[in-house]
Amino acid sequence: MKINHSLPLEYSTEQNRLNILGFWIFLGAEIALFGTLFASYLTLVNGTGNGPTGAEIFEITPVLIETFLLLTSSFTIGLGIHAMRIGKQKAMMVFFAITILLGLAFLGVEIYDFIVYIHEGATLQTSGFTSILFLTLGTHGAHVAFGTVWGLFILLQIKKRGLTPETTNKAFIFSLYWHFLDVVWIFIFSFVFLKGMM
């Protein structure tokens, strides 16, 4: 394995560069997935039938808390990658752990939101609007849940093996995934919640 020391560790081998390129291609497929969900949401948003509308079930406080948690986690993952690039393994692991905890807190608030919606008569079967709402939020939430588990495995690998071309490559790819989830959330915040509350 030929290592190019003029590049950051996560890009330092040909395999690492191919892994990152492959992950960007994967994110293209994820954009298509969420694009389809958003298009479906915009088609079904007024199909409320006898069920509640977004304006009736959405509350700004939990949504702002979720947004704060995810945007803060995007900042901490960025700090983690910076620490990784300057060889500060302990700091990197702390920032990654904070990111994972923020992700878990986000999931906790989202589950609370779902319980509130169900108590207010919005279920998967209530209407076209509620079914696409749960599907869109649930798909994003499932991605966050997967991300917290993935991040934990990366932390365990770095604790065991240290900052190697392989572990830094995995950590960097994870950070791309996490930033992507934050960008998707900004679209959800804008087009689902803010638009729905108006």
Q: Strand-and-helix sequence, N→C?
A: HHHHHH
Give the number of helices. 6
Evaluate the radius of gyration.
Answer: 19 Å
The rough form would be described as elongated
Uncertain spans: none
Helix content: over 70%
Structural class: mainly alpha
Query: In what range is the share of β-strand residues?
Result: under 5%
Tell me the major beta sheet: none
Instruction: Tally the beta strands.
Output: 0
Taking the alpha carbons of the first and last residues, their distance comes to 56 Å
Mean pLDDT: 92
Describe this structure in words.
- This protein has 198 residues and is mainly alpha-helical.
- The termini are far apart.
- The model has no long low-confidence stretch (mean pLDDT 92).
- Helices cover 80% and strands 0% of the residues.
- It has helices spanning 14-44, 54-57, 60-85, 89-119, 128-161, 165-197.
- The chain is built from 6 helices and no strands.
